[in-house]
C-alpha cells in the first residue's frame, strides 16, 4: 500500500551511535544551524546538506522572458518560481547551479535544523556514505514518478497524482487516513503542477466532494486509505 521512504527506513536501521556522532561532529565544527519557518537556508554547489530536524522546501527559479507594457514593448527578464518538493528529517540534499535556473532551500516548518558538510567528510562514516547515496538514488526514482505525473493532460489528474506521491512519501497515519505532517498552500501546489492557485482551489473542492482527499487540523492534506488502494483502478470519472 504505502511505500516506506528511506527516511523511515534509515531511522529504523541506522545505528543510533553513528547518527549521534555525526550530530556531535557538526556541532563541534559549527556545521549545524536552526531555521525558522520560511527562512532561506543558505547553500552553495558542491556541499552536502542533511536535514536533522523538520523539513526543507526546495524551490526552483527560472529566468523567463516577459513582455513590457510600455509603448516600446521592451522585453524584460522576470523570475518564475516552482515548488520542487520536500526533504524530510534524516534525508540529504544538494544544490546544483545551472544557468538560467537556480535552486533554493527554505525551512518549511519552525525549528528546522540542517547540517552541512563536504563530500569527503563522509569518509569518516563509510556506512553512512552508502546510506546517503541510496537516499539520492531513491530521490531520483521519485522524481521520475513526479515527471510522469506532470505529463498527465488533465490538471485534476496531475493534482491527484502529485498529492498521492507526496503523501505516500511523507504522510503519517491518522483517523482520516494518511496526512501530510505540515501544511502546503494552493499556490505552492499550483507551481508544482503547472497550474494556478485559483484552479487548484476549485479542483481541490471537486476532489473533496468525491471523497478523494480530506483535510485535518490546520488544513493538513489527507488521502483516505481506500483511495490509495483503488487509485490505480481509475481515480476519476470523466465529465
TrEMBL record:
Kindly list the residue ranges recorded as spanning the membrane. Answer: none
Please list the residue ranges annotated as the HTH crp-type domain: 153-226
Sorted alphabetically, which Gene3D superfamilies does this protein's record hold?
Winged helix-like DNA-binding domain superfamily/Winged helix DNA-binding domain
Q: Which molecular function GO terms apply here? A: DNA binding; DNA-binding transcription factor activity
Q: Which CDD domains match?
A: HTH_CRP
Residues of the signal sequence? Answer: none
What name does this protein carry?
Helix-turn-helix domain-containing protein
Organism, by scientific name, is Myxacorys almedinensis A
Phylogenetic placement of the source organism? Bacteria, Bacillati, Cyanobacteriota, Cyanophyceae, Leptolyngbyales
